[in-house]
Structures are given as C-alpha cells and as structure tokens.
User: What shape does this take?
Amino acid sequence: MMSIEQLIMHAYNTVPYYMDLFNKNSINPLNIKCPEDLVKIPPLKKQTIQKNALSLVSNQYRYDQLIRERTSGSTGEPLTIYKSKKDIIYSNFSMAKFRYKYYNIRSDMKTCNFYMFSRLSNGNLSTKPSVQDSMHLSLNVFCTDYNTLKNYVKCINDFNPSYILSLPSSLFMFAKFIEDNSLSITADINCIELKGEYVSPLQIEKIKEVFHAKILNHYGCTETYGIAFSCPQGNMHVLNDNVVVEIVNDNYDTVSEGEKGKICVTSLNNKAMPLIRYMLDDEALLVQEKSRCPCGHKGSIIKILSGRVTEYIQLENNRQLNSGIIYLIIEEINFIYSNAILQFQVIQNDINEFLVSFVLSSDCIVSQDQIESLFITKINMYGLKDAKCFFSYPSSIIPNETTGKLKYFENHIKNNFK
Assistant: This one.
C-alpha cells in the first residue's frame, strides 16, 4: 500500500495525465499529504479514462507487461484498466484479510461460485452449466431452465461448500426458484459473499432465509477491487489499506457525517495506472467518520444508497434471464470484430421486441448487417429465438438526465419481476 504522499509523487513524476493536470491547475504535489488534501485535485471521470487510458499509465511500466481488465460496462461504456501482477496481489490481500478476520473465509475452503462466463480458446463464451474440481464448484448464471436449476440444488448439496460467491440478483433469483419449487439447501454453508451490484434488504433476507448462512456484502469495482465490506454487525467498512473513499457533493467537496453524496475513490495499490479521486457516481451516505464499530473495526462507515442494479430480460412463461448476457454478447462481438462497438443500449418493449442502439467506432471495418446478424445469432443461442430486434446507430447515447448514468439494458414491460 502506498501512502497518500507516495501515491501523489509517483503519479506526478511518472504519469503523463497527472503531470499535465497538476501543472495546468497549479497544484503542488508536495502539498497533498493526507486524505483531506485530495479535495484540491479535480475528480477523474469515466469519460476521461476512456479517452486517455494510456496517458494514465505510469512510464515505469511497459503496456505489454501489464494485465488489462475490462469493467462490466454497466453504463454501456466499458473501460480498460491496466494493472501489474503486484497491484492485483496487494488489492486482493486487502480483501482477503477482511474476509478471514470477520468471517473466517480461507483460501482452502470449498467454494461455490456463480460465474457469468468463461471464454473458450476460439473466443466464444462457454455455456457449460457447471465446472467442478475437489475445491471449486462453478455454476453458470445464464442457465436458468428448470432442470438445470434443480440440478444446481443437488450439486450444491452434494458438494457442500463452506463459501458461496455470487451476484446478488443471480442468487436471489435462484433462492426464489428453490422456495417456489419446495426445494431445500442442506449444505453447511458458512458465508455467502454478494458482490458486483447494489444489494437490497429484500435480497439479503431472502438469501439468508433459503441458504441459512451469514451474508457478506462486498462493494467494489474492477477499477480498484474492494472498496467496502459489511461486518457481522451489518455496517459497511471502507477498506482503508486499499482505497481512500470520499463522499462528495455536486461541487466535488466532501460531505459531513449524516449527509449523502456520490462515491469518489482513490486507489492506494494501483501503481501501474493510478486512479485518484475517481468518480464512481454511486450514491452513498457517510454514516460515521473515523469511528470504532462494535465489531472492533476502526475507520469510516458508509451506507450504499444506489448502485448497479441488474434488470432481467423477460421471457415467455414468466421466466427471466440475467441481462448481463447482453454485455457478454457485446464483448464477444468486439472480440471478433476488433472493438467495433463503443457504446450500446438494449430496451425491451415486449416479450420478443427489443430496441438495440449501437455507437460504432469510427474505424469500424465491418458492416452494420454483419454486426446485426452476429448479435441476433448470439441472443438466439441464449433462449431469445423469436426476438425481433430494431437497430439504430446514433452518434452517441445520452445518459439518464436524473441519474447521469446510461444503463445498457432497460426492461419496459410493466409486469417485470421486482
């Protein structure tokens, strides 16, 4: 972990973007010594990363030696983040310490993971329902037919994992399936970690009720990894050895205790691509600052008020499909057609009617017909065989005026599952 002073000097001396930013704004890096001083630095927004990704990489690293990670694209605009192996190890260690201290989660535990996809050697997405070895059981969240889900219950009970890791929306739907079909989980599950989306109280209670396990709510992002974890008391603690979190108002000034604002995060473990005052735009409340929780943890406590929420694609016979499949299909198209799609949005107006908007790269070398044909082929593979897609190609897609976010999928069917 870098101190604030080390981070700022490293960014100023080795990262072109920050050297230019500090010089243009007459910021002396020697004056940034503690978290409270970060407010002197203009915030970093997603659009800036998208346009200037390489200028945010430290000149101490070669691009071909770094690991490239793509964000989930929940706003319709995936980002590329560069990290070194050491950066990843340090960030993961911060999360591992918290898991072990408060939930006794260890690397040698039998684990069940509800995964979104794995990619085959030919670039296609794997749809295999489960992959298992002696310590790991993986279940595909996009396999949602009755027989597969019933088999998932048997797999979990037979495997008897101590720890489950999942998107809350996927596990909530699975819990509802178990309850609606009078099935039961008999496995002795110690803890379930929910990550990747906003978690509602309804989801937590239903998952606890069905799986009989402690719930760990993990708030984080691909850009920085872990940001906050819930302790056994239910409080969300900032991982201070991985990030600095500010809750800021519309002027990007930090709010006081009891006030809400947008989450602004600074990574302390990414030397390859420093992210300083990075705006996530999720809304949070600063509950307590520099306090001690009954669990014994010291530091800021926050409450996540809004974030990434998964909507479901409505299928026939009242079935739903996780809308994350759309993002994965776009990733596959971009893998095949050299990142042809820059921005996208899909709106479902009826069971079999979808409005599909693509913003294409200026150097796209394939035709719209080729992209449309591949998109339709892929959604047919995932159970949308009668889907009618109406395509448009705007120059840009405007975010929601209220939230400032652009959701890659919206379900406009009134009886959508809540």
Q: What stands out?
A: The mean pLDDT is 88. DSSP finds nine helices and 20 strands in the chain. The two ends are 41 Å apart (CA to CA). The longest helix spans residues 85-103.
